[in-house]
Write a structure and sequence with these properties.
Elements lengths: L11 H23 L5 H20 L2 H19 L5 H37 L5
Helix pairs in contact: 1-2
């Protein structure tokens, strides 16, 4: 069995980008609350602008690039899935409903049988 070691290398610039993105998010939140007296438009504009800048900065880092790669790989895998046709979906849904009805009847019959055995035959309670 071969063991593959994965080594992640994070540069100082990459860490700085992530820290700056985090500071931009925090700055957006602080600006939102401090700009309350200026009006909702100014508040939301500052928040959205700083959050957008944080997202752009995050996606330029190695973590962001690897997140984008993960998303692309996931989308590629979703395209490989063979989805059922409408007819197959309706058939399987019908099977599930039929099974539920059969199981409900079975459990009801079992419950009533046990009730009859315990209360009427063994204990002799009449309702």
């Amino acid at each position: 069995m071969s063991m593959t070691q994965v080594e992640t290398v994070t540069s100082g610039a990459d860490k700085a980008k992530l820290a700056a993105a985090l500071l931009l998010v925090l700055g957006g939140l602080v600006a939102y609350y401090l700009l309350g007296p200026k009006g909702a438009l100014v508040q939301w504009s500052a928040l959205l602008a700083l959050l957008a800048a944080a997202v752009v900065l995050f996606f330029t880092s190695e973590s962001g690039k690897s997140l984008i790669g993960y998303g692309r790989d996931s989308w590629r895998e979703v395209k490989k899935v063979v989805w059922p046709t409408r007819k197959e979906s309706l058939q399987m849904t019908g099977y599930v409903f039929a099974f539920i009805i059969v199981m409900a009847l079975f459990l009801w019959l079992t419950d009533k049988t046990l009730e009859w055995v315990l209360y009427d035959l063994i204990l002799g309670w009449k309702r």
